[in-house]
Design a protein that fits this description.
Blueprint: H1 20-37, E1 51-56, H2 61-73, E2 77-82, H3 94-102, E3 108-113, H4 118-126, E4 130-135, H5 141-155, E5 162-166, H6 173-184, E6 188-192, H7 202-206, E7 209-211, H8 214-218, E8 223-226, H9 231-235, H10 242-249, H11 253-256, E9 264-266, H12 279-282, H13 289-307
Parallel strand pairs: 1-2, 1-3, 3-4, 5-6, 5-8, 6-7, 8-9
Length: 313
């Protein structure tokens, strides 16, 4: 495997700065990494001697484990930093935290933070490559890459596919990165949800069609992705209740009848079973939700490999 030099030392804040060719290269590399993950012995010495720091100022067990597993399977050392119980709670700022870690010889940072733009600040203070693992409501590019890779693997392409995304469109960073990437890769996106959870000008900004009726939204869809509903949205009065939301926007077998026969069902996780997606759909042959988790490790391995200049020889 030859390392593509255009990736070396790059940051990943969102997918807007990555070309179609570069995204395809990430997919092809992830395909190889996925094969490695199927072996009995899953570790390769590609990034031996490199040190990766995961800086999580927000809780996210799934994303953190996925990144750390990806790094360890490439033989990198991992420094795991959590704001909970750390010096940040004692008043240390982001800048001092990064300076301290940088002095320990970090080669790449994975950052999750509630504030948009935090990954850019980490790069400013460290001058090291940074991967955005979710910043506020802004972006979650590695989730979008694993979502798109999951579709690409099953369908062979994203070009021309109708992808319907259902749920809290207003607050989702996963959605924003997916719409950016899917538009770039030629997919036609439709978003659907309650009017109170739909941002203005979504067609103008992201080229996505908006629908408020679920059956119209999924008509002829190649892919349907449900987004997780947050309980705090109900507390904010943005929709009446989870039961009513499920009746109007929950994915059921009845809803799937309006989509393509070979429709793929996706969810970035964690799911609220019985709310945004019914068990009959989540556990159906159409569902690739578990495979998305598997693909998350492969995509993150591919990014670490490409950005840190990994080689297999």
């Amino acid at each position: 495997m030859n390392n593509n030099l255009q990736f070396s030392g790059r940051n990943l804040y969102d997918l807007d700065t990555y070309s179609v060719e570069e995204i395809n290269t990430i997919f092809e590399t992830a395909k190889i990494m996925k094969e490695i993950n199927k072996r009995d012995y899953k570790k390769i010495p590609t990034l031996r001697g490199k040190t990766i720091a995961t800086l999580f100022f927000e809780e996210s067990t799934r994303t953190r484990i996925s990144f750390e597993l990806a790094a360890k399977r490439l033989s990198a050392d991992v420094v795991s930093f959590s704001a909970i119980g750390s010096s940040v709670k004692k008043g240390e700022g982001l800048q001092d935290t990064v300076y301290t870690l940088n002095a320990m010889g970090i080669d790449l940072y994975v950052v999750r933070h509630s504030c948009p733009g935090a990954p850019q600040l980490v790069h400013k203070y460290s001058q090291k490559p940074v991967l955005n693992a979710g910043d506020g409501r802004h972006a979650h590019p590695t989730q979008a890459l694993l979502d798109m890779f999951s579709i690409w693997e099953k369908k062979g392409t994203l070009k021309g596919l109708k992808v319907t995304i259902v749920g809290d469109i207003l607050h989702s960073r996963v959605l924003r990165s997916n719409l950016t990437g899917m538009r770039k890769m030629g997919a036609k996106a439709t978003v659907c949800g309650p009017r109170t959870l739909m941002p203005p000008k979504i067609e103008e900004v992201y080229g996505a069609k908006s629908e408020y009726d679920l059956y119209n939204a999924v008509k002829g869809a190649d892919v349907i992705m449900a987004l997780r509903m947050q309980l705090e949205r109900q507390e904010e009065g943005l929709f009446p209740g989870l039961g009513e939301y499920s009746r109007k926007y929950g994915l059921s077998k009845e809803v799937l009848k309006y989509a393509k026969e070979d429709v793929l069902i996706m969810h970035p996780g964690p799911m609220n079973r019985g709310v945004e997606i019914l068990p009959e759909v989540a556990d159906s042959p159409h569902s690739i939700i578990i495979e998305q988790v598997t693909n998350g490790v492969a995509i993150r391995m591919a990014l670490l490999f490409l950005i840190l200049g990994g080689r297999t020889n």
